[in-house]
Amino acid sequence: MESRPPSTQEGRGLSRRRFIGRTGSILGAAALGAIDLPNAAALPQADVIEPGAQVTALVIGTGYGGSVTALRLAQAGVDVHMVEMGMAWDTPGTDGKIFANTTSPDYRSFWLRTRTKQPLSNFLGFPLDRDVPRYTGILDAEEMGGIVVYQGRGVGGGSLVNGGMAVTPERSRFPGVLPSVDADEMYEVYYPRANSTLGVATIDPAWFETTEAYKYARVGRKHAQRSNFRFMFVPNVYDWDYMKQEAAGAVTKSALAGEILYGNNHGKKSLPKTYLAQARATGRVTISPLHRVTSVTPAGGGYTVTIEQLDTSGAVTTTKTVRAQRVFFAAGSVGTSKLLVRLKGTGALPGLNNEVGNGWGENGNVMCGRANHLWDPTGALQSSIPTAGIDNWAAGGAFAEVAPLPTGIETWASFYLSITKNPHRGRFTWNAATGKVDLDWQTAWKQPSITMAKSIFDKINATEGTIYRTDLFGTYKIWGDHLTYHPLGGAVLDKATDNYGRLHGHPGLYVTDGALIPGNVSVNPFVTITALAERNIEKVIAEDF
Ligand code: FAE
């Protein structure tokens, strides 16, 4: 059934009983009780901020950095208000589901677009993008100079749309990622704390060997190992027991039904089920969804924060100003960088230093597919949750995630998202003429990433006698070099801020998200973003509150 946008915020206050009644036909009682709470019950209730409110700590954004910050402040006895420009994602659409399937994007899928912009634009020569109603959907494909930056929008930020791959970088690489941070502390205290609060776990190896859903990853392993590359299992925040039950037909399918890019209706331990659930349980954290911060400026020892309330068409319905003693920028690398660069450029925060906007990178993301032989199928059923990687970082500067292509049909394709040691860094600057923030990235800067990814896939193709797919990113285009899932930097730790995220020039302002990390973490970034936020907020609570 084609799902349509609700004309109002239909069902916002839906009770748990009514929710179960509506979805009872697709959700078994066991699934509701024991394993998977529907989002309506698990998500924090909206508690919208009033104009003129006075707030002790205001957090901009509800992704990883924001959620860690809110939880730890609340546990220390500080009242927190979180402002999130995206939706709460706690209300089912007309099809009874909160999130749309990856294979059939609808109004819920994209942030304020009238046509989808899917990372894989083509398949077998056919363009995949289609018209959708403009809506405050979950995935933002933000087009900036020479690059499309994909980001999650809603309470939970990137955790709503990401692949859940929860990777701690190798200890030896860490000093190259964050040189001013004590690595021992990170690996002894903050990475373990982040992994345990996020609910990170590794797939049962015995199940991996037998399930149809990971045939594609086993083919990926075989090809990697035959070319002498290091293959590794990658931990994830998806509930592996739930996935096993999906395979057994005992619960409603999510990963095995191709859900990922536009949200998982079940199984994924996204932030609303982990950090944000704990934060709400303290009774000290409130959240305003569909509210966007546009300005922060000093006022009487604290800050005046301007916030626009949006409706689901993206129109501003109200503009509010509130007072906050302290403000934590957690709007993601792009969101935080753009806000800070604009606030410095317009004179709202004149004390920010010239490092603001610098050091932005895309974690060297580049995608490609390989065409396998007919005797080497990758499976019609593919779990949308990746769990394997090929590590050639030391020799070739690339770590490749063995990614799914969950089309529901046999494709004979192996698909990869590579993270590479791309040395290029972009810079955000204020453009007074247009009143916008520009990013000086160029698509040509992806060439080093392609070269590094080729260090793996040229060799595999030579060993296997196979070729690259040319039908996934356009016609006769091998490399997905126009995008990133992993924006990082723009307000770099120990440069735009002190060594704990305090912004220079304005006491009481902090950066807590991926903007702190200078462009690259050598693996998927959210565990590092979470662990760094844990480290920084511990120091800030001890010294500033
Ligand atoms: P983020 O999670 O982006 O949260 C920022 C929040 O702030 C968002 O909810 C915004 O809507 C909100 N916001 C922005 N501006 C404003 C404003 N002005 N006012 C109010 N709210 C605002 O930031 N990483 C992994 O480690 N493993 C993966 O498997 C993985 N897969 C990915 C797949 C996809 C498709 C995508 C898009 C990303 C993936 N990532 C993955 C990246 C990961 O989700 C990302 O690094 C983190 O979410 C970044 O966390 P932050 O806290 O920096």
From TrEMBL:
The protein's required cofactors: FAD
Keyword Lipid metabolism applies: yes
Entry-linked InterPro entries: Cholesterol_Oxidase (IPR052542), FAD/NAD-bd_sf (IPR036188), GMC_OxRdtase_N (IPR000172), GMC_OxRtase_C (IPR007867), TAT_signal (IPR006311)
Keywords: Cholesterol metabolism, FAD, Flavoprotein, Isomerase, Lipid metabolism, Oxidoreductase, Steroid metabolism, Sterol metabolism
Entries under Pfam families matching the protein: GMC_oxred_C, GMC_oxred_C_1st, GMC_oxred_N
Superkingdom of this protein's organism: Bacteria
EC code: 1.1.3.6, 5.3.3.1
Domain Glucose-methanol-choline oxidoreductase N-terminal: start-end pairs: 68-342
Gene3D superfamilies: Cholesterol Oxidase, domain 2, FAD/NAD(P)-binding domain
GO molecular function: cholesterol oxidase activity; flavin adenine dinucleotide binding; steroid Delta-isomerase activity
Pathway: Steroid metabolism; cholesterol degradation
Domain Glucose-methanol-choline oxidoreductase C-terminal: 484-533
Gene Ontology BP terms: cholesterol metabolic process
Annotated family: Belongs to the GMC oxidoreductase family.
Name by which UniProt lists this protein: Cholesterol oxidase
Species this chain originates from: Streptomyces chartreusis
